[in-house]
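Here is the promised in-class demo. Please do not try to memorize the tokens; focus on the logic of going from shape to residues.
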């Protein structure tokens, strides 16, 4: 059990936490003892959303905690507590349904990245009652921890080979199979796009391939962009543009996190995870603007910009994925700055080739306060990717609708009959908020897991 959760037996000595909706605070206060009323008045507690107050008993020991929320959908309010409350054991005064989501918020708020720095402190512990689905809570929290940590580790310790080791470790943990195609072997097996983008790095490019589940079950394939660092290649980024590029393997981290959720929950799915793992480096053998690559599918790609490398490596992985005709194909990538300009850093974009799939997914995401926003695969923009010497250019030269044209590039490698979801997301918190510390972040995964569980557990 994670150290932010406590054994059920400790509830008798645990401290209650009351979440009070702001509009109900005045009525709640009227029902309290004179001592509590005087304490809150003396400490100038106004009952505003986000405010937390510790209330002692007559002997001066902590007796209860109150936290003001806008509504009970705002489970992130619990995320501010484990590293701000005094160490000890606590429990929520909530219904079972609300308790489940608030417990996840608590667990995510306890996350600290401690690989290179000692933790600030131990988190306070939340007692999980027997009535809760404790396995579900642990699965969600640990899987999101995995995503955050993989993204937070700098490239010196999370290059293509280390990302491969992380995928291999996950496979062993859940008795999945794992293999990889490395270096020039990629050329022999017709994955020139992956090889070409990653060949300038000292850490050889590779295609990671994890499989799990019963072959008789519906096939779900996850593809994650694993660019472990992106200099931009010869079209080199600025220093500021390069600063967060350790997170450019965020898509790979996401599909590993989602795979962990699926495997830990034992969903009846025949799962495959494909990750093109590369480092887009600058070297004498780096690929160049104007080069033409023959992809795994046979589509020739003119390199309009070496900094649009993510879609190039994904093209080969998507081609490998669709060869098995999965029942659902999902790719996740930190693909374009254009998606962030359109939607900001906290709202992931999703593209889809079949309306019912994405509409159902969005409904699940909204119920869990795990928001995503659909952008269109607007076919008229496909002309922006035309090339005079190849089948397609990897770059939209006019700069408009960059997230859409990136999606249209990938669409060339996915047949219309295969249900496909393409995520373009930030995978990073620019600032710390309740339950979401600055740094690597899992986005849309709770909604995705909910959708998959509902669809395939029928």
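The designed amino acids, position by position:
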């Amino acid at each position: 059990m994670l150290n932010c959760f406590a054994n059920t037996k400790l509830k008798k000595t645990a401290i209650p936490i009351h979440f009070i909706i702001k509009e109900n605070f005045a009525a709640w206060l009227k029902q309290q003892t004179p001592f509590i009323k005087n304490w809150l008045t003396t400490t100038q507690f106004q009952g505003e959303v986000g405010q937390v107050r510790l209330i002692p008993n007559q002997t001066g020991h902590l007796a209860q905690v109150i936290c003001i929320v806008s509504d009970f959908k705002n489970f992130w309010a619990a995320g501010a507590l484990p590293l701000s409350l005094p160490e000890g054991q606590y429990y929520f005064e909530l219904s079972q349904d609300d308790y489940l989501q608030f417990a996840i918020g608590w667990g995510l708020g306890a996350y600290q990245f401690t690989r290179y720095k000692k933790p600030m402190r131990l988190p306070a512990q939340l007692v999980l009652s027997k009535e809760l689905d404790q396995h579900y809570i642990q699965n969600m929290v640990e899987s999101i921890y995995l995503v955050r940590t993989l993204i937070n580790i700098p490239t010196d310790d999370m290059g293509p080979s280390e990302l491969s080791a992380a995928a291999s470790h996950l496979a062993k943990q859940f008795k999945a199979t794992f293999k990889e195609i490395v270096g020039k072997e990629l050329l022999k097996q017709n994955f020139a796009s992956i090889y070409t983008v990653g060949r300038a790095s000292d850490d050889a490019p590779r295609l990671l391939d994890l499989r799990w589940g019963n072959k008789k079950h519906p096939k779900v394939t996850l593809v994650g962009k694993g660019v472990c660092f992106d200099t931009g290649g010869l079209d080199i980024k600025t220093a500021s543009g390069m600063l967060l590029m350790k997170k450019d393997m965020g898509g790979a981290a996401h599909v590993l996190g989602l795979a962990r959720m699926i495997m830990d929950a034992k969903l009846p799915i025949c799962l495959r995870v494909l990750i093109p793992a590369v480092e887009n480096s600058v070297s004498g053998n780096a690929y160049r603007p104007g080069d033409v690559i023959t992809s795994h599918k046979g589509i020739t790609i003119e390199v309009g910009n070496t900094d649009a490398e993510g879609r190039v490596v994904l093209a080969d992985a998507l081609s490998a994925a669709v060869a098995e005709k999965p029942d659902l194909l999902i790719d996740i990538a930190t693909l374009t700055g254009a998606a962030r300009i359109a939607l900001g850093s906290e709202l992931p974009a999703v593209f889809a080739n079949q309306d019912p799939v994405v509409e159902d997914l969005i409904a699940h995401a909204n119920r869990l306060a795990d928001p995503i926003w659909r952008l269109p695969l607007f076919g008229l923009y496909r002309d922006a990717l035309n090339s005079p010497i190849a089948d397609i250019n990897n770059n939209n030269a006019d700069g408009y609708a960059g997230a859409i044209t990136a999606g249209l590039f990938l669409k060339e490698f996915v047949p219309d009959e295969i249900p496909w979801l393409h995520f373009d997301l930030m995978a990073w918190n620019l600032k710390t908020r309740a339950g979401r510390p600055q740094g690597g972040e899992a986005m849309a995964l709770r909604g995705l897991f909910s959708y998959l569980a509902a669809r395939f557990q029928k």
